[in-house]
Amino acid sequence: MPKLVDTTIRLLSQEPLAGKLPTAEVLRVAEVLDGAGFACLEVSGGGVFDATVRRRVESPWERIRAIKARVSTPLGIALRGRFLVGSRPVSGDIVGRFVSCAAENGIDVFRLHDPLNDVSNLREAGAAITSAGGAFHAGLVYSPGRTGETEMDTLVEQARKLPDLGATRILVNDPTGALVPHRASELVGRLMEASGLPVGFYVQGAAGIGLASALAAVDSGADLVATAVYPLALTLHRVSGESVAESLQGLGHAPGLDVAKLWDAADVIDEWIGDEPVAPVAPRIAVRAAEYDLPAGLVAALEVHLRAHAAADRLLEVLEEVGRVRAEAGWPPLAAPIGQILASQALLHVLEARRYGSVIDEFRELVQGGYGETPEPVDATVARAVGLLAPPGQLQEDPVTTEDVRERAEGLAASEEELVLIAMFGADAEELLRVIRARHDRGSVLVAEDADAERGERIRELVKIVQESGVGEIEIEDEGMRVSVRRADEPLAGAQVPVSAAATAIELETTVTAPRSDGVVRVESPMVGVFYRAPNPGAPAFVDIGDTVVPGQVLCVLEAMKLFNELKAESAGVVRTIHAENAQAVEYGQLLFELEPVPAPPVV
Question: What pTM was computed for the model?
Answer without folding.
Answer: 0.71
